[in-house]
Structures are given as C-alpha cells and as structure tokens.
Amino acid sequence: MKPKVTRFSSALPPNIQTLIITPSVIKAGISVQSDILRIARRWKLSKFYKSLLSNSDPCYIELGQLAMLKGTVSSANVDLATLVGVVQQCRFVKHNSLSFADWSMITLSNDHQIYAAQFSHAYLEIWSTLLREHSVGMPVEKAVKRQLVSLMSGKKIVACGVLADQPPMVSVPVGDTTKQLKKKLQ
After folding, report:
1. For 43, which of 12, 24, 116, 151 could close a Cys bridge (C-beta 3.0–4.6 Å)?
2. DSSP 8-state class, residue 167
C-alpha cells in the first residue's frame, strides 16, 4: 500500500492536532522534541508548546536516549542510520537527493513517499526492539534470573555478574549466631 502524504497550508486538521497534543499518544523518533516544538510553534498550539518547554510530562521518546538507557549506544546523540545498524543490525541507506529535497511540495513523488515510509518503519522497529531490552544503569526492581547486573560503588562499577536463582532460605551470620532469612515472594 502506498503511503499518502498531505500538505496543510491554512489550518491543521483537528484530528491531526488531537493526535499531536494528546499526551497518551507517545511520539518516538530522533530529535522528536524539536520537531514537535516546531509543529506547535508553526500551528500556534501555544498551550501545548509551553507544556513541551516545561518538559514536566513529555509525550515523546527520544530513541537515542532510550538506546543509551538500554546500553545499546554510549551517546544519545546518534542518527537514524547508526541506530538501525546497532539495534536492527542492518544497513539504512539515506539518499542525499531526498534528504535535502523540498518536503513542503503539495504532491510528493513516489520516491519521497517511500523514503518517508522507510523512516517511519525504521523508527517503529527500533522502538519495538528497544522496549524488549533490559535497561542499563537502573536499580533492579524485580529480579529476573540470568539478568546482567553491575554493582556500583559511587560512580565506579566494582563487580559484574548475572542474577542467579535465589534459594528460598539464606543463612546470615550475625555476631555469634546465624539467622535464617526467608525469600520474599513477589
């Protein structure tokens, strides 16, 4: 199915405005905050624009930051081709002639539409893959057997390992005696 791309010159259609400003609709991408700010400013969505600037309850996910949180990349400032390569382990080819083309045309060529669809699909695949990965640098809230963990002392990693299966009872020496601690059921 061929994607349909439309240009709006006089007013932002209400259904698209609702999609953009609804906080429960998460927008994911690279530099997505600046893109949403530009849309909010262009279409005079002043209340939404102010809420974006306050960053109190973001309705977007920067995929570079998510990839860094998941330990996939060391810096959040990565481009789409890098994320596709690292996360999806395949190559994403950007066509320079399309990257710098006039995207404000009323009718976009088939190549433009396919290029836009490939970007959207790449973002979706990266998002889907990263959501399944464990976060790195976060406290372990619920132990998962064989989960990779690091023990930190200050800002330094002092030990790395894998969570093992926990015995139902642990003996802990306390002074001259030994106490039996039961594992809490979650």
Report:
1. 12
2. P
Encoded tokens for 26: 């998460």
Triad 70, 78, 60: Cα angle to 5°: 65
**Is residue 24 located within the same domain as residue 93?**
yes
pLDDT tens per residue across span 146-178: 666 777 777 677 777 777 766 677 777 788 888
Coil, strand or helix: which one is 62?
strand
Q: Mark whether 82 and 155 lie in a shared domain.
A: no
Is the distance from CB of 75 to CB of 67 less than 8 angstroms?
A: no
Strand (E) positions, 30-147? Answer: 60-62
H/E element, 186:
none
Residue 122 lies in a domain: yes
Q: Are residues 96 and 157 in the same domain?
A: no
Calpha distance 11→62 (Å, rounded): 27
pTM for the structure as a whole: 0.63
Q: Across the strands, what pairs with 148?
A: 162
End-to-end CA distance of the chain: 47
